[in-house]
Design goal:
Layout lengths: L9 H6 L12 H6 L1 H9 L3 H9 L1 H5 L6 H9 L2 H6 L4 H10 L4 H8 L4 H9 L16
Helix pairs in contact: 3-8, 9-10
Length: 139
Amino acid sequence: MTDKKERIDIHSYLAAFDDIPGTRVFTAKRARQGYHLNQFAMSLMKEENRKRFLADEKAYLDEWDMSEAAKQAVLARDYNAMIDEGGNVYFLSKLFSTDGKSFQFAAGSMTGMTQEEYAQMMIEGGRSPEGVRSIKGGF
């Protein structure tokens, strides 16, 4: 006796993640989209690249084959926009480290909080699971 598993349409399955408010799931599609953005971020692991970037951010970014939207997100230090452009937060950590900022600072800014507010929220147990959990469903 064999069980036939129902085939899942992977595109529909992954599209369901877009229904979670405030959540950006790093999918293969996002990885492909943000390849050059993430490679830029990883380049900041080398001191000479950090110095070149900080000396002329726009010129350094223009060396990378990434979208203008991704470049603008980097220049604005808009981490949510970078993630929307396919950035991976662990790669992007090289950027906020280059700026002398902590992961906690970046996470706070991505949630609209100060670093201190974010830290306090986490000390108190994090965000409540109650609230809007589906854009379509309104719950």
